[in-house]
Structures are given as structure tokens and as C-alpha cells.
Design goal:
Mean pLDDT: 86
Largest sheet: 8 strands, mixed
Number of strands: 8
Shape: globular
Number of domains: 1
Radius of gyration: 16 Å
Helix content: 25-40%
CATH architecture: 3-Layer(aba) Sandwich
Oligomer: single chain
CATH topology: Aminopeptidase
Order of helices and strands: HEEHHHEEEHEHEE
Length: 184
């Protein structure tokens, strides 16, 4: 991948049409998106918050918000999906990853607003994470999820992710995708 292609994969803003005809903009997350992110998390159903955070998260704490907004576009990346609702941007989905200490793997996550699920947005956000990881030479993406998250299972299987039961917790699964295998 050329340096220009690498930069494009990391910085571009795209407009996508979903299955229901709605149009969203997907772009890298910015620090000034903090209130969009806070409102987005607050408006997720209890089930969606449980699936995303693997536990009970009510109103997002300041600590959680600092952690989620700590995006340096190098070791920690995030992409936000926005919908223009009567001239006001509304966050409807987000995908992100955080690089492991060795730089070879990254843990990732995707969450889509309840009313926007099953429209292809999760797939688009996950593809954006994979594209970004490839451009950085990351070898492996992985995510630990609730075994009951059937929507994510369908998306992951469709995109070729491997799935195995978490050996430490049978109520969870670990999805993984070899993104950029090192030459031997």
C-alpha cells in the first residue's frame, strides 16, 4: 500500500446508503465528538449497552468518556457514523480498535444505535476498522463479546471472522480476523 493509500484509508470521510435508504457519513472520530458519543451511549438500550460493554453501563461516566475519546489515530482508532437529522448531526454508530503493546494485534468493537441495526451499518463500520488495520500492518483484530450477541455473530461470520468460546468465560466468545499476515 502506498503512503497516499495509507493516508486515505485512515483519514477519508465517506457517505454510505444503508438498506433502508438512509444516508450516513462515516469519518474518523475527533475529540470534539465527545457530546455526540455521550448522547449516543446514553440512548442505547440496556441490552445494547450490555452487549457493547459486557456489563451494566448506565449513564457514561467521565472516566469512560475520557477512555473512549482517547483516540490518537495511531495506537487507538475510532470511526463514527453520523446522520443528519434536521440539520443536526446525530451519532448512530461507532467502531474502534486499540493496538496491543506488541503492535501486532488490536482489540476492536462496534456498536450501532438500536433503531439503526440490521441495515448494514455495523458491517460498514467493521469494514472501516479492517481497512484501517490493514493500512497499518496490524496482523490480527479480535473482540471479546457476549455469546448471546447473535447480530454480531451473523456479521462476523459473513465477513470471515473466526469464533471460539472464551476459555476463561463460557458466556463469552472471542472473534478474530487475520488482517495482515506477516511474510515468513
Amino acid at each position: 500500500m502506498s503512503e497516499d493509500q495509507h493516508h486515505e484509508a485512515l483519514t477519508r470521510t465517506v457517505t454510505e446508503k444503508l438498506r433502508n435508504g438512509r444516508v450516513v457519513t462515516i469519518r474518523p472520530m475527533r475529540r470534539e465528538d465527545i457530546e455526540l458519543e455521550r448522547e449516543f451511549i446514553s440512548n442505547l438500550s440496556q441490552e445494547s449497552r450490555h452487549q457493547r460493554f459486557l456489563g451494566g453501563v448506565g449513564k457514561p461516566s467521565e472516566q469512560l468518556m475520557r477512555q473512549l475519546m482517547d483516540v490518537d489515530h495511531d495506537k487507538r482508532e475510532a470511526f463514527i457514523a453520523l446522520f443528519d437529522e434536521d440539520g443536526t448531526e446525530k451519532e448512530v454508530g461507532v467502531s474502534r480498535y486499540a493496538l496491543d503493546a506488541d503492535g501486532k494485534g488490536a482489540e476492536c468493537a462496534v456498536v450501532v444505535a438500536d433503531d439503526w441495526q440490521v441495515q448494514g451499518l455495523g458491517t460498514l463500520l467493521l469494514k472501516r476498522v479492517v481497512e484501517s488495520a490493514k493500512s497499518r500492518g496490524i496482523e490480527l483484530l479480535y473482540s471479546t463479546e457476549s455469546a448471546s450477541n447473535n447480530k454480531l455473530r451473523e456479521v462476523a461470520e459473513h465477513m470471515g471472522w473466526d469464533c471460539r468460546t472464551d476459555p476463561r468465560d463460557a458466556t463469552q466468545v472471542i472473534y478474530s480476523l487475520k488482517v495482515f499476515p506477516r511474510s515468513r
